[in-house]
């Protein structure tokens, strides 16, 4: 490919919305164009990188027995109503009607469609396992699209789904995909970490995210300083090292006036206590059921853990009217003692470490002191419902949890029968019984992974592509296009490199050398081969390795083998 014919334009200025370096570089290197908020055109350079990642994914999945399919992006509401998600998914689900008034959505994911597809064919246990995947454009109507391809509204995703005869076999499929994802991201040249994760709106009982490590990442990861434990902040747990203090001598509860003191910090200061001595009480709606969550005042409630424990589709704070109906009070004055209406109560482990706590009195302007768990109230369950923080103890060893940032590029879920039971995706087992297939779900954000590679691999001059994802692997730079000997030697070398299997472009533009160097660094071609009139007189070229910015001269006849061998070394799985 001649650069003069390449459909791209490098930029010096980028839109103000580009807040992280990878987003700016995608614009500056002429790889994307914004069409609408969170919706982008992928230009040739970006699309070549995306296709390379797709090829890696295909190779790793196909050799593990997976089969590629393609499902529609427009999905009928009936399938989502069958699964129960039509009413729960939220405003991210873009709903629309056809000319006959039928309800549809633009698919943010394809669990319903794939389950319907498989149930039409599935009859016997002898047909399983199935492991099907696709590359498809998804649409999620994000409230605040940002960071380019990291969190767009329309995006390219590889999503896959497994169907098995039993939980045991389904977890074997899960492990197979977990291993495949590790291989995919290693081959892509990324520094990443698989971490325990919450399942969210997808559902299921077990999940791992694959996080590309980068300071600009949206996700917080907690990992152990000693062992391999790592988890997303939503899922991370720790070991409480505090022992419960003796509560046998705690006096009876008493209400104290706390006018206009609503927050934990306000109540603690007003009563001369620490925030650890205050009980934070919040009423949530888990689907349509109100639940009271109790945590110690120095902790934050983790809604993802509440959702996972309750196996709910959605979790949100209760409305003022619901709070008043249940407690007789307002937010800030709720507590577990003296509720007007009985509801499920979930207490965090941290609540059990204190001899007593001060909680809302369920009367506006009052709090209750000396509240003792299991004496003054009995929770329905005690568990982990708080946000874990760095410095806490690892749940698997005596190490300490450390914090880093990551970009989620892939996630694997064990779904069980969440969808197959509701949608009657069943088969006849060995005993002649009709049973639901056991499912798994596996996704990779393709565009997001490509941008994450840029976020992890760049410098002040531009992109530093991993060889596996580079749109082109090398660029030939003839510095004097007006000199036939330079031009001819460069084109001859360009053709030899391509013939040797190195994807190469040649910058045939009649531009000054500095302009060509800057563009080559910005786009991030892994290898640059520079042809100048003076070096050509000596029969040598200059070869620059982009990731180190090191240059070396070598004979022209040696340069092809050098580039070919460099490519082979770079593509080896480290």
How do the strands and helices of this protein lay out in sequence?
Layout: H1 21-28, E1 32-36, E2 39-42, H2 44-62, E3 67-68, E4 74-76, H3 77-83, E5 94-97, E6 103-106, H4 111-121, E7 130-139, E8 154-164, H5 167-187, E9 192-196, E10 206-213, E11 219-224, E12 230-232, E13 254-257, H6 264-271, E14 279-286, E15 289-296, H7 303-310, E16 315-317, H8 320-327, E17 344-348, E18 357-360, E19 366-371, E20 381-383, E21 401-416, H9 418-422, E22 426-428, E23 434-436, E24 438-445, H10 446-456, E25 458-459, E26 462-463, E27 474-478, H11 484-499, E28 504-506, H12 513-523, E29 527-531, H13 533-537, E30 540-545, E31 550-555, H14 556-571
Parallel strand pairs: 3-7, 15-17, 17-20, 27-28, 27-29
Antiparallel strand pairs: 1-2, 4-6, 5-6, 7-8, 8-24, 9-10, 10-21, 11-12, 11-21, 13-19, 14-15, 14-16, 18-19, 21-24, 22-23, 25-26, 29-30, 30-31
């Amino acid at each position: 490919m001649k650069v003069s014919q390449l459909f791209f334009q490098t930029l010096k200025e980028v839109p103000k919305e580009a807040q992280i370096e990878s987003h700016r570089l995608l614009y500056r290197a002429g790889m994307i164009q914004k069409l609408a908020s969170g919706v982008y055109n992928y230009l040739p350079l970006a699309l070549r990188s995306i296709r390379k990642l797709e090829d890696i994914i295909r190779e790793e999945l196909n050799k593990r027995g997976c089969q590629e399919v393609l499902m529609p992006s427009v999905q009928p509401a009936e399938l989502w109503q069958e699964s129960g998600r039509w009413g729960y998914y939220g405003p991210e689900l873009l709903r629309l009607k056809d000319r006959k008034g039928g309800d549809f959505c633009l698919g943010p994911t394809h669990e319903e469609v794939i389950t319907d597809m498989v149930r039409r064919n599935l009859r016997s246990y002898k047909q399983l396992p199935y492991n099907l995947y696709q590359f498809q454009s998804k649409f999620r109507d994000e409230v605040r699209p940002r960071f380019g391809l990291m969190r767009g509204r329309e995006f390219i995703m590889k999503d896959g789904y497994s169907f098995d005869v039993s939980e045991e076999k389904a977890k074997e499929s899960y492990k197979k995909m977990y291993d495949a994802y590790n291989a995919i991201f290693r081959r892509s040249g990324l520094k990443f970490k698989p971490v325990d994760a919450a399942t969210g709106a997808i559902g299921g009982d077990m999940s791992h995210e694959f996080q590309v490590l980068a300071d600009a990442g949206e996700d917080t990861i907690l990992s152990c300083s000693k062992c391999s434990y790592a988890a997303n902040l939503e899922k991370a747990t720790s070991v409480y090292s505090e022992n419960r203090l003796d509560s046998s001598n705690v006096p009876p509860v008493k209400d104290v006036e706390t006018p206009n003191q609503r927050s934990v910090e306000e109540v603690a200061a007003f009563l001369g206590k620490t925030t650890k001595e205050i009980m934070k009480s919040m009423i949530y709606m888990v689907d349509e059921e109100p639940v009271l969550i109790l945590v110690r005042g120095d902790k934050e409630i983790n809604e993802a853990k509440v959702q996972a424990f309750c196996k709910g589709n959605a979790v949100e704070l209760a409305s003022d009217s619901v709070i008043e109906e249940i407690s007789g009070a307002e937010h800030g004055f709720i507590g577990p003692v003296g509720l007007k209406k009985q509801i499920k109560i979930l207490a965090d482990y941290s609540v059990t470490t204190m001899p007593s706590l001060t909680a809302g009195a369920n009367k506006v302007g009052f709090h209750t002191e000396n509240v003792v768990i299991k004496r003054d109230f009995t929770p329905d369950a005690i568990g982990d419902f708080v946000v874990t923080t760095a410095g806490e103890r690892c749940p698997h060893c005596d190490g300490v949890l450390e914090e880093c940032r990551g970009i989620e590029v892939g996630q694997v879920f064990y779904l069980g029968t969440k969808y197959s039971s509701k949608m009657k995706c069943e088969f006849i087992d060995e005993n002649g019984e009709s049973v639901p297939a056991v499912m798994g779900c596996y996704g990779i954000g393709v565009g997001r992974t490509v941008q994450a590679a840029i976020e992890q691999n760049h410098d002040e001059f531009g992109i530093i592509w991993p060889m596996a994802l580079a749109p082109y692997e090398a660029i030939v730079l003839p510095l004097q296009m007006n000199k036939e000997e330079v031009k001819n030697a460069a084109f001859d070398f360009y053709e030899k490199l391509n013939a040797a299997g190195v994807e190469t472009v040649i910058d045939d533009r009649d531009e000054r050398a500095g302009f060509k160097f800057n563009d080559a660094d910005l786009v991030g071609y892994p290898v640059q081969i520079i042809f100048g009139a003076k070096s050509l007189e000596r029969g040598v070229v200059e070869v620059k390795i982009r990731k180190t910015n090191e240059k070396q001269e070598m004979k022209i006849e040696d340069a092809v083998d050098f580039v070919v061998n460099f490519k082979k070394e770079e593509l080896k799985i480290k």
